[in-house]
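Continuing the series of single-chain predictions for the mutant panel. This is the parent chain; the variants come on the following pages.
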Amino acid sequence: MKGKLLAIVILASAAIAGGLLYYMQIYGFYYDVEPQPGQDVALVPLEAETSEPISYSSFQAIDADSSPIRYRACFNTDMSLDELSAAYRPAEGAEPLTAPDWFECYDALALGEALASGSARTYLGTKNIHFGVDRVIAVTDDGRGYVWHVLNDCGKKAYDGTVIGEACPPRGERGQ
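Parent structure:
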């Protein structure tokens, strides 16, 4: 009888720990980002280093303090892809990161397909929004926009243990 009770306690503990781990990864660390009208969506112009806001509406975003690359956002813009491409720096090769299923406006798979087909394009939002992390903004041909963070070269070096070097900004500096 004691063996059965011990097995039940172990299995129950494992199930509770697994459920808690799942909850913490999918729901626990995320919070809604408070919109800052006129500042939430900004792109880096072709001939500049600092980002500038673009026109947008219907902004929604989530973030988590546990990682600088958990930020995801959605918005709408009235700017066309041609207007954006003529004025703002592209983010070549940026692939959308997934978001939790409950953040319904952000669909990384559909966005990836749109990028592959050419019906969406990516732009550099802010360089070094956090040390080693860039903000990428994608816009589809129907005006839907998506935002996520990616590791840049400095961030990749910092995480894999490679010497960072002089080309990277000092830790703690943020881009604009």
